[in-house]
Specification:
Number of domains: 1
Strand order of the largest sheet: 2-1-3-4-8-9
CATH topology: Rossmann fold
Largest sheet: 6 strands, parallel
CATH superfamily: Alpha/Beta hydrolase fold, catalytic domain
CATH architecture: 3-Layer(aba) Sandwich
Structural class: alpha/beta
């Protein structure tokens, strides 16, 4: 299994899911995205996939969904799992699906050099709505700069057109509305599971997230 994080955070946010899966004997690798361009994140993900010995269940959260959509064409990838994630089609980007990051209602703020951050004061209510306040505050202060280019780069060949896909919809998500998640899942022909959680569902509801990944591995790797 290969886990891919999204914007503003790093791979350590997968720790709880990683611990649950490795405890059950699964080999799990975690990607550290540069978050400078979609192509760079895809390249980083493919390097990790290359290093795996067998079939790969590729999992992505948020912007990581765009990454696995492009990287998932790798021949070792046997399934895609989207976790409250973007699933673009050919020519689409996260910006296409999310909208203008500089819109008045957006929780994102621009920074010099073409980077974006989550508004610190709104981080808990947007990204980490169901995380403990202290955890959300730490994540807000430990944000990874996210290049606007990475948000705007289009997907060229969506893997969900040829690989079986699953989608965990976070029904209380304040970053990607549940309705948008359901629409992307339906378009991708993904098997869908719904969890009453916010955008950081893989952290706040790690057991349910790990259970879905485990179920997918059982179905495609048995």
């Amino acid at each position: 299994m290969v886990l891919v994080h999204g914007a503003f955070v790093d791979g350590s946010t997968w720790r709880a899911v990683y611990d649950l899966l490795t405890r059950d004997g699964y080999h799990v690798a975690v990607v550290q995205n540069p978050n400078l361009s979609l192509q760079g994140d895809v390249a980083a993900t493919r390097l990790v996939i290359d290093a795996q010995d067998g079939p790969v269940v590729l999992v992505g959260h948020s912007h990581g969904g765009a990454v696995i959509t492009e990287a998932g064409t790798h021949p070792k990838v046997v399934a895609l799992v989207y976790v409250a994630a973007f699933a673009p089609d050919t020519g689409e980007s996260v910006t296409t699906l999310y909208g203008d990051p500089n819109a008045a209602e957006s929780p994102l703020v621009s920074a010099p050099g073409g980077f974006l951050f989550q508004d610190r004061d709104g981080f808990h209510s947007s990204f980490g709505a169901d995380l403990p306040a202290a955890d959300a505050a730490f994540l807000a202060d430990a944000q990874v700069p996210f290049a606007a280019k990475a948000m705007g780069d289009p997907v060229t060949e969506p893997a969900w057109r040829t690989k079986p896909s699953w989608y965990l919809v976070a029904t209380e998500d304040r970053m990607i509305p549940a309705s948008a998640q359901r629409a992307m899942a339906k378009r991708a022909g993904a098997t869908t599971v719904e969890v009453a959680a916010g955008h950081a569902v893989y952290m706040s509801r790690s057991a349910e997230t790990a259970a879905l990944i485990r179920q997918v591995a059982c179905e495609v790797c048995s």
